[in-house]
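Re: the pair you flagged

First of the two:
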Amino acid sequence: TAAPNQTVLITDIVGERGLATASNFRVDFTVTSIAGRVVPFGILIDDATGDGLFEPAGNPAPTGDDVIVTQASFAHGNNDTFFKTNLYVTNVAATPVTVTVSLIPRLVSGTPAPPRIYTLGAGQTLAKPDVLNTEFDLLDPSAAGLRIHPSAPAQLVVSTRTFVEKFGGTFGFFIPGLSTSSQGVLALGTGRVATIQLDQSSAATGSRSNFGIAEIGGVDVLVRVTAKSGDTGAVLGSKSYFVSANTSVQNSVTDIIGSGAFATNIYLQFELEGGAGKILAYGVAVDNTSGDAIYVPAQREP
């Protein structure tokens, strides 16, 4: 029970319900009162490191749209980190669905396996650990987005967990899947921009940041990325990036503000300059000490 405008946190949902250890389960939320609305979420906490991973709940309507995850990894990073990605696809409908999972390549090592086809029963969650290596045969270093295509209108909740193993446990982040018609998608001619807040620092307590762009509409695009000061709004740098159809790119923030430059309060704005494609933009801030990465989806202006 939640009072008006109250947040209720249920700690250790499995233990609170007296359930046994479970490695693959989901939690459904239903409002049973006459009035009221909720925004559900979950937090996965690593037992060794204490790292908490936030994941918003999904409430998809039946649709034939593809679902996009902008970034997945199988690659070494700085400071002896190695990033891997697990994929989760849940069919919340009452009927089975067949999905095709394909790559939105950015950096590919090895010979990629063809798109994978899976059939999910009603209520089933498909879990694919280390998906780029185990399902697509990619080698280090590799990075790519993922496209989940349903064979018919479906209700899919999609997410990935990208993580590094360190200090006896893990650090990482979830990425929620977004439909190709979601509000986060940018297209030419709308006059809209998408924005993310990031930091760029070499301090042990600071973060180094990257940004990425995934083209999901099947047409080449040119994207202008502008870095601005969070304190003053002043432009710190601006650069255009060409993104081929159905591929993705990723760069360090220093590619815009200059090598060796540091800024602890900046934001990036993305705007399409050319091409009839569509994009999803994101940022990743990586802790300089732990390797813990935080995924930040770009938010489109209304």
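Second of the two:
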Amino acid sequence: QIGYVGAMLFISPLGDARDRKTLILKTCIASALCLIGMSLSPNLWVLAATSLALGISTATPQLIVPLAASLSEPERRGRVVGTVLGGLMAGILLGRVFSGALVGMLGWRGVLAGGGLLTFGLAVLLSKTLPSTQPSIQETSYRDLLKSVGIIARDEWRLRYSCWFGAMSFAAFSAFWTTLSFHLQTLGKGPDIAGVILVLTFFALLWAKSSVLLLAIAVIALDFAAVFNHVSNQSRNYTLRPDSQSRVNTVYMTSYFSGGALGSMLGGWAWQIEGWLGVCILGGVFAGLGALVAIPYYGMTPEKSHSQQS
């Protein structure tokens, strides 16, 4: 997640100044190489280094979403962004299902290697289907491009609020998922159940007395809340500055995954101190902090901004 924050800060802004198709293909291939490198890691230090590199190279989704927004008509942009983000979040959930189910058969190395091969296949598919794009800004130095990210964050208060909502939501989400395998072990379940449990959510209401199935209900509720929050934030963000969508996305996603990294770190700490109760309290605190800031946000009067002039 820390590597992914780096990708958002230093790679994603290039989407406004370079051909997005070229950037997407390069990051996709780099991600595939990193996944295969992780699968071959001889020790923990190499695994950690390749994991960090994987996070940095995995800017592909955050280049695709602004691309989709830029190709859509303004009146359909919210629907298009929602559709693409829906696919992104579905991929995240399906990734948990399949990786959790396959790790028992293939081991973690096999899952990572398989992910690398699939990512190579994705690069080939994208090379044949994505259109080339013209940058929205011309002849801008990389330093000025990064500087403009801060200017956008300073000028757009709606974006700043989206950043806070997203960060707190993903912090709660990550605290839960980081410690879920630990909690399942206390219930006598192996790590593979973390993926299978998402499938069980569709049947959870039929057997609500089972502790695992009750947990499944919580999983689907948490996932729904996180996805709804994320899609709503992104749909609003892409109406702010149509000519700066990659940099707007940089501001939001950097905050979003910073919150996720914080939640993962504190989730492990909460588990060590108070177990599952501590994790639940921590997640509630994050969610409450997000809701607290939402109260003044909805009472604000929109000010004249770049987004209203567009």
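The mean pLDDT is 79.

-B.
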